[in-house]
User: What shape does this take?
Amino acid sequence: MKNKTMMKARAPQRKPPNQWPRFFRNMLGQLDVAGDDPVFLAKDDIALEDQSYVASLIAQGLLSEEPSSSIACISCDAIAAVRRKGAKGEKASAVCPCCGAIFQTNAQELRRWRADWNSLGAWVKDMAETDGDLESVSSSALFLGHITRGQERFEVYLARSLTEQTSGQQAYSDISQSMNGSGIVLSLAGSFPKPTNPKMAVVRLIDCLVVSGGEFAFEWPEQAFSGKDQAKQRAGLARAQNDPRQKQKESLKAFVRRKIVGISIDTRHHEIAEDIRKNHKDQITYFDRLGNEHKLSNQIILDSIAEVLRENGLGDRISGKKFNT
Ligand SMILES: [Zn+2]
Assistant: This one.
């Protein structure tokens, strides 16, 4: 109990998205609708306590520093052009085209950070550790590469402008045309239409990101893997049905099912296997397509029996039931 509490205390603190740095959530919202235009964060957009996130996002390549070449006029609503002085542009002054005001500014005030659609794609790709090259699929979708989960490979896409029905469906259609297997679409927007392609699962990007210790990390949510390659599944099933060994296994399972009846003392699955090997050889014998005789392996026999026992809510032995041969 004590150990468990200590383990918990050491685990990194994860913040829910509504407590994430405000500039980050704003930036994603802007990138969703900005098209290929860059999005800029001014110094005032970033809260003091969020500055460490800016540093880590620069290190991860999502943000880059790009000083502003214009600034709001101090005496009217217009935007004034900046003129830089000094070797590193550390001194600067601005002239307002509207009211003619001339005022001093400095490099610190002009600090600005830039993000754009492609840098976001590259950042997500790095974080999600997909393999393959980043490719643009359409104006609103990037292909980020593949990930493997269990036996299955998934194509990963990043999509913007999904909120609106028409542009959302257009993005899905473009992605569908590029997809070969099952796909995961990461949506920049918080809401999106349901995709009609059953191989495609759509999840919000923010549901894949976790904030911990001043940095962002990537974790796949389970629903990302709900897109199923049904054609591949059907082919797999057909293959299994035509495989003589698989067919014999199914036949053996049916045999075991028929034989589990009545009440008796404990019978272990290896005892059932022994009985079958001794008295029901035909249940474990099959012929390949060339007519050669084979026996099911010991492991397959044991697995088949265990599967039937589990179907009946039993463990690896028959408690209270008899294997009646
Ligand atoms: Zn002015």
In short: Residues 1-11 have pLDDT under 50 and may be disordered.
